[in-house]
Structure formats: structure tokens, C-alpha cells
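Box 3.1 A note on notation
Throughout this textbook, protein chains are presented in two layers. The first layer is the amino acid sequence; the second is a C-alpha cell string describing backbone geometry. Keep the layers aligned when reading.
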Amino acid sequence: MKTESAKARMDSLMRLTVSDWKDRKNEASETLFFLVQTILAMIKQNISPNLPEARRKNVDKISQIIQYIHQNIYATEKTQASHLATVFGLSKHYFGIFFKEQTGFTLGNYVARNKLHLIENRLRYSYFSIKEISNELGFTDLSHFNKFVKLHLGQTPSAFREQVSQLALPKNMQTE
């Protein structure tokens, strides 16, 4: 960091990020995502001019890609490698390599984790039907949605919703 105030802000952000991680233990947390984005933005602002131009461009490009994915998470075709590669001027083959190098995740895994986070929130906090949630997130059919949720959460969307609704009830009102 270039200044003492920037160092202090970065220290605060890092402590907040670690605290959020310890509290939630959920790498798909939206709060955690934005804290990391803020840290990356601060690092970008303070990058040494000696850093190779190619590396600075990679930081910019991956930030743009991640932002684009989050903005278009509901449109499955816009989160496909071929589409993203075209939008960001990379070959489809290199896009996958670049994304993994920069984030540590494959594109498919990254998109799935983000969709799963949205699904969990919809099942916990909304009255949308399971079919409405499936359609909103671009699943081709309810069967595919159910398989996706069961694979990642270990239970069907209905069972997950029932479980979290039971947890929200006072102990004396929960069914056994």
C-alpha cells in the first residue's frame, strides 16, 4: 500500500474478511465476495508501476469477467465459456485456463457455486415455488434443478426448504 491510511484500510478489510469467513464458513457468501472484490480493487489501485503490464491487465480482465458473471447469472447462455471468451476477446480453450489460473476455480464450478448460493437464499427467504426458482436461474427443467440441488446440498429443494423452515421455528414449535 502506498500510504499509511491505505494500509490501515486494507488491514481493516482483511480483518473483516477473516471475521466474516470464520463466522459463516461459506465461501459462496455474497458479503465475502464483495469484501474480496474490494480488497482486489485496493490492490489494483496500489499496484507498483514496476509490475508487468500483462499482470495488471489480468487483474482488470478477471474482475470484469467475475462482475459480468454475477450480472448475468440468471442467463445460462451468458455464463458459458464460449460466450464469455467471445465477450472478453479470448479463445474458448484459453478462457478456461485463464479463469482457473486467476480464480482457482473452473468456470463451471464458480458458476455452480454462485447459483447454489442464490438457490439457498431463495429457498430460505422467499415464497417462490421451486419451479419459479428453477426457471429464474435458467435450469432447463425441474428434474435438472432437483438433481443439481441434491448433488450440492445432499437433499431435494423441498427437503432443504422444510429443514430450514423448521430451524427458524422456536424449539417448542418444531416437529420431530
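The mean pLDDT is 85. The radius of gyration is 19 Å.
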